[in-house]
């Protein structure tokens, strides 16, 4: 589902953030990306959804070679990938419903089918009753659930999450992880960068540790492996 071959990324300020990464994620996998601050985790995952371009090397997502992807075809890639951020990135002037509907790729869809799909994903994240609320009327956990609903509304094959529990308390973080597990069970491949030691050690999933822009560890049922 995701393939990276010999990927390097040097920012224009000269920082070599990713320094030769080769990795494959199979369809349906759930993997955590861990490592010290500044090790290159965000850069690594930003390249998967084309937020950053590698300096060299190739990245293939569900058969799409990102190095050959024309700007005008980036939306095609984004339809395959849902992205969840630490700071939610909801649009404050839109309601919960509108935030999710806004992300839906509307190709020859009727208003009725759009409404059905948006309410379906709001139901999955247990926020149907907040459809008319605005983001600033929600708790952090609720805002993250809206952003998860938004990320899966197009039925993406891959979900990328960068520190999705970083702004949440432990109980709320676990609620979010249950949702991720549910989404993964439905077949979506998940790659999640995190500093949450407890979650990684409890879930026993694939763990990829990045240090100095390289893969330092890749374990099938791994541990966080650093002090929290
Ligand atoms: N847009 C940018 N321009 C220049 N340098 C950057 C940029 N983004 C990140 N860097 C640098 O690249 C290196 C890797 O950063 P990155 O954000 O990928 O690390 P990280 O492992 O995600 O860190 P953290 O755990 O703190 O989020 C760091 O030295 C950082 O300062």
TrEMBL record:
<comment type="function">
    <text>Part of the ABC transporter FtsEX involved in cellular division.</text>
</comment>
<keyword id="KW-0547">Nucleotide-binding</keyword>
<keyword id="KW-0132">Cell division</keyword>
<dbReference type="InterPro" id="IPR015854">
    <property type="entry name" value="ABC_transpr_LolD-like"/>
</dbReference>
<dbReference type="InterPro" id="IPR003439">
    <property type="entry name" value="ABC_transporter-like_ATP-bd"/>
</dbReference>
<keyword id="KW-0472">Membrane</keyword>
<dbReference type="InterPro" id="IPR017871">
    <property type="entry name" value="ABC_transporter-like_CS"/>
</dbReference>
<dbReference type="InterPro" id="IPR003593">
    <property type="entry name" value="AAA+_ATPase"/>
</dbReference>
<comment type="similarity">
    <text>Belongs to the ABC transporter superfamily.</text>
</comment>
<keyword id="KW-0813">Transport</keyword>
<feature type="domain" description="ABC transporter">
    <location>
        <begin position="2"/>
        <end position="228"/>
    </location>
</feature>
<keyword id="KW-1003">Cell membrane</keyword>
<keyword id="KW-0131">Cell cycle</keyword>
<dbReference type="GO" id="GO:0022857">
    <property type="term" value="F:transmembrane transporter activity"/>
</dbReference>
<keyword id="KW-0067">ATP-binding</keyword>
<dbReference type="InterPro" id="IPR005286">
    <property type="entry name" value="Cell_div_FtsE"/>
</dbReference>
<dbReference type="GO" id="GO:0005524">
    <property type="term" value="F:ATP binding"/>
</dbReference>
<comment type="subunit">
    <text>Homodimer. Forms a membrane-associated complex with FtsX.</text>
</comment>
<dbReference type="Pfam" id="PF00005">
    <property type="entry name" value="ABC_tran"/>
</dbReference>
<dbReference type="GO" id="GO:0016887">
    <property type="term" value="F:ATP hydrolysis activity"/>
</dbReference>
<protein>
    <recommendedName>
        <fullName>Cell division ATP-binding protein FtsE</fullName>
    </recommendedName>
</protein>
<dbReference type="InterPro" id="IPR027417">
    <property type="entry name" value="P-loop_NTPase"/>
</dbReference>
<dbReference type="GO" id="GO:0051301">
    <property type="term" value="P:cell division"/>
</dbReference>
<dbReference type="GO" id="GO:0005886">
    <property type="term" value="C:plasma membrane"/>
</dbReference>
């Amino acid at each position: 589902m995701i393939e990276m071959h010999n990927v390097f990324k040097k920012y224009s300020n000269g920082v070599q953030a990713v320094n030769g990464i080769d990795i494959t994620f199979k369809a349906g996998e759930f993997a955590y990306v861990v490592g010290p601050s500044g090790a290159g985790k965000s850069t690594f995952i930003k390249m998967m959804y084309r937020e950053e371009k590698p300096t060299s090397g190739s990245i293939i997502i569900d058969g799409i070679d990102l190095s050959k992807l024309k700007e005008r075809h980036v939306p095609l890639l984004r339809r395959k990938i849902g992205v969840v951020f630490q700071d939610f990135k909801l649009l404050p002037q839109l309601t919960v419903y509108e935030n999710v509907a806004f992300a839906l790729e509307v190709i020859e869809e009727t208003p009725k089918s759009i409404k059905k799909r948006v309410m379906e994903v709001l139901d999955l994240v247990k926020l149907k009753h907040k459809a008319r609320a605005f983001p600033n009327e929600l708790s952090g956990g609720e805002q993250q659930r809206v952003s998860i609903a938004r990320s899966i509304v197009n039925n993406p094959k891959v979900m990328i999450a960068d520190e999705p529990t970083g702004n949440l308390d432990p109980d709320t973080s676990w609620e979010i992880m249950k949702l991720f597990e549910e989404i993964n069970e439905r077949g979506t491949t998940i790659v999640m960068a995190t500093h949450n030691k407890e979650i990684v050690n409890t879930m026993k999933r694939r763990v990829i540790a990045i240090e100095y822009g390289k893969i330092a560890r890749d374990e099938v049922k791994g541990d966080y492996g650093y002090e929290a």
